[in-house]
Design goal:
86 residues, 1 helix, 5 strands, elongated
Length: 86
């Protein structure tokens, strides 16, 4: 995990590893991203030009709890949380 901070005059588009869509970083914004294992040529060029700053992110104290990616399956009609029929 790396912290990427945008120091350019305009926004920069980064595509984190495993993400479905790119992430837009506006000037002054920073984000902790999972970057690809190999060096990215665009980020390297932006870093050399001083447009972005890349640093190692501090590890989190506690990892966030994992959620089950599968949706809950129900049979029959939806029931009210209060117990009465809708």
């Amino acid at each position: 995990m790396m912290r990427v901070t945008n120091h350019a005059a305009g926004p920069r588009l980064v595509w984190p590893k495993g993400a479905r869509a790119p992430r837009l970083l506006v000037p002054g914004e920073s984000a902790v991203l999972a970057l690809p294992d190999r060096p990215d040529p665009c980020l390297a060029a932006w870093e050399a030009a001083g447009d972005v700053r890349i640093a190692a992110a501090e590890p989190a104290a506690d990892p966030p709890p994992r959620q089950d990616p599968r949706p809950e399956r129900r049979r029959g009609r939806e029931r009210s949380p209060f117990g009465w029929e809708a």
